[in-house]
Amino acid sequence: MTDWIPEPLLPMGPWGLAYWQWIGSVVALLIAIVTGRFVARILVWVGARLAARTDTKWDDELLVQLARPLRLLGVVIATRLLLPALELPEVTDHAVKRILLAAFGVALVWCIARLIDIAIANLARAPWAASRPASRGLLALAARTLKFVLLVIAGISFLGALGLPIAGLIAGVGVGSIALAFGAKQTVENLFAAFALGIDQPLREGDFIRTDSGVIGTVEAVGLRSTRLRTPDRTIVSMPNARIADSRIETFGLRDRCRMEARFDLHYATTAAQLRDIIARLEKRLREHPKTYQDELVVKLVGLGDSGFQIEVQSWFDSSDFGAFRDWRQEMLISFVEIIEQAGSKLAYPTHAVQMETLPPAAR
Predict the structure, then answer these.
(1) Residue 14's pLDDT is what?
(2) Exposure string for 213-234, b = 16+ CB within 10 A, e = fewer
(3) Is the CB of residue 260 less than 8 Å from the CB of residue 314?
(4) 299 pLDDT exceeds 80?
(5) Of the ranges 37-41, 123-127, 230-234, which one carries the lowest mean pLDDT score?
(6) Which of 10, 111, 352, 360 could make an SS bond with 69 (beta carbons 3.0 to 4.6 A apart)?
(7) Three-state DSSP class for 205?
(8) Strand 236-240 and strand 258-267: pairing?
């Protein structure tokens, strides 16, 4: 096949290659780059035409993200197809094929990494993720974990292609992972607990919670190791995720209504008729409020206390907005005082009767 090559290009040059092979390698690489980019552009154009027929956006984003990896794949494939024309020596040909195989692996890993990015981005925009702010951080963590695993697999495969013993590498990675797991037991527990909190969603960022240890605060962030709470004193409490996951968590942000509970005493000078009138008017005032949960409402005389007649009031407001509930509760309590005053009664206060007796003078 060298009959058509000019005589000056036949002598051997550096690394055991003829001059015409060096020139041919440069030309073949340029042809491969142009051909690969052209083929990739055609594939992206065809894919864009097909994606335009669908209502989804992920396929359009996928084409944009895969454009550069596809160019690299096209260059590698075109170079591999042109390689036989160079008639390289066996050793050089084998080395070039390994380099092309490595480049093909890089392009393939690049494509898979872009696919992971697209999948995670679309999951983060899904309605279930939008309603769970903490899940977005976990999705980012999942993306990094998948990419790390992908790189490990690609690295082991690449070293295996170079002739190194893969079994020994896998065994070494396994032993190292076990040692790391034992050495960082708490860290691993907190990491898995972060995933558990993201999946089960007992709390979310912005929720006001109380744990079984008595810690009260607003969830500011759910990290990979710990969860940060902002207490009512504006201090930050950091709790390990493993401890949070094992705790009994009371989440105020997920309640569907707010409960108002009050217990007060009426003075014993209050007559029975006044008692009935006050109880009826208190219940009526509660039912007149537009947010009162009508099916469960309690206004009852529950006992005779040390200071007066004990009245229990319990009702629910059909809202989870605690700020608005505070205003409604204040409005109701002031109304209760007005009703009691209008009925001619008054609130009792703790009193104690002291009886003093005069003893007769002692006999002499």
Answers:
(1) 62
(2) eeeebbbeebeeebbbbeeeee
(3) yes
(4) yes
(5) 123-127
(6) 111
(7) coil
(8) unpaired
Nearest 5°: phi and psi at 316? -120, 145
Helix, strand or coil, per DSSP, at residue 321: coil
Residues 275 and 264: their CA atoms lie apart, in Å, by 13
Distance in angstroms (rounded) separating the CA atoms of residues 246 and 321: 28
Residues in contact with 228: Cβ distance below 8 Å, sequence separation at least 6, in sequence order: 219, 220, 221, 236, 237, 238
How many Cβ atoms from other residues are within 10 Å of residue 314's Cβ? 15
Close Cβ partners of 192 (under 8 Å, ≥ 6 residues apart) = none
Q: Are 125 and 99 in contact (CB under 8 A)?
A: no
Question: What pLDDT, on a 0 to 100 scale, did the predictor assign at position 218?
Answer: 87
Q: Six-digit token pair at 54?
A: 């669908």
Q: What does the alpha-carbon distance between residue 103 and residue 82 come to, in Å, rounded to a whole number?
A: 16
Q: Which residue has the tokens 């040909």?
A: 93
Q: Which tokens sit at 217?
A: 């605060």
> Domains (ranges, CATH) in the chain?
7-176 (no CATH), 202-254 (2.30.30.60), 258-342 (3.30.70.100)
**Are 33 and 75 in contact, with CB atoms under 8 Å apart?**
yes
Q: Tell me if the pTM is above 0.90.
A: no
Closest by alpha carbon to 231, among 244, 216, 252, 241? Answer: 216
Residue from 205, 328, 202, 211 nearest 258 by CA? 328
pLDDT of residue 114: 81
Q: Across 139-257, where does the E strand assignment appear?
A: 208-211, 216-222, 226-230, 236-240, 249-251
pLDDT tier at 146, thresholds 50, 70, 90: confident
Residue 237 phi, psi dihedral angles, 5° rounding: -115, 120
Q: How far is CA 113 from CA 67, 72, 75, 204, 206, in A?
A: 13, 14, 19, 29, 32
pLDDT > 90: percent of the chain? 12
CA dihedral sign of residues 139, 140, 142, 147: positive
List the single range of 182-186, 217-221, 356-360 with lowest mean pLDDT. Answer: 182-186
> What does the alpha-carbon distance between residue 113 and residue 117 come to, in Å, rounded to a whole number?
6
Mean pLDDT of the chain: 76
